[in-house]
Amino acid sequence: MRSLTTLGLAALTLALVSCSDEPTSPDTPSFGTYVHTVNGAYVINSNVNVAIDAATKQTTEQPAPDDSTVVFSSQTGEGIDETNPSKKLPLSKTESYVYVNGQPTDTVTVTQLGGKITQSFRLRYSIQQIPLDLGRKDMVICDLGNSTWTALKDTVLPFDLPGMAQYKASGTLNFTGKSLGEETVTLNNQTLKTKKVQIDMNATLYLAAGPTSIPLPIKLERVYWFAEKIGVVKMEQKAAVIDLGILGGFLGTPVQAVPGMVQTAKRWSAR
User: Fold this and answer.
1) What's the pTM value of the predicted model, to 2 decimals?
2) For labelling, which of 17, 26, 66, 152 has a CA lying 20 to 30 Å from the CA of 248?
3) What gap in Å lies between CA 201 and CA 107, rounded to an integer?
């Protein structure tokens, strides 16, 4: 899983709850495992960046380097259901290295607890070449047990803008997920039954200078396809044009083009 243009993939470290002699509750539904839990397992992805014209909203696909994700640590056991601490759920956790052009570029950790699949993201955004690093956030990218869910609800504490010390940025994050049902896809000459989900990444950034604060609403959309025993086999983030509102007057442009991306598994190891 490569680092992504707008909202980058990054490492997640979640505490793995120790196994105990107490069995998983018999009324716990079985969702299957949607992470690749074998050391040395790999997925090789082909990637395409999708540019968008801010005026016409016409998109153009641009090939990007392949990446590969290789599992170097995996664990299985039981974890605590956060909504019911007396209940235990099956837990799988994998840590992987990400390679681009043969060079390690990142690590990524994915955890499935019951039907919830969680990954962390380093949220990055740029406003007219001004980079904003919103930090690492844990996001539920799939919830197999629900049709809708809260993917991420958090705040970003004020921080100085790079090169613009008189300004501070902060934000609110309200990402939601929803199931798009099942879909059969053919990849690597194999037919896979997948769970398809959509994440609506809704955020509002605030740029403040003294008592004046300018809001910037951002809405982006990402779709994932999950295959059992492999994990994410396809991901698409739609290119978008963001209305800069009042901020556009200060920056001299009313809108900003945000590129999209398509990531597709082209080869993977057997489990």
Assistant:
1) 0.85
2) 152
3) 22
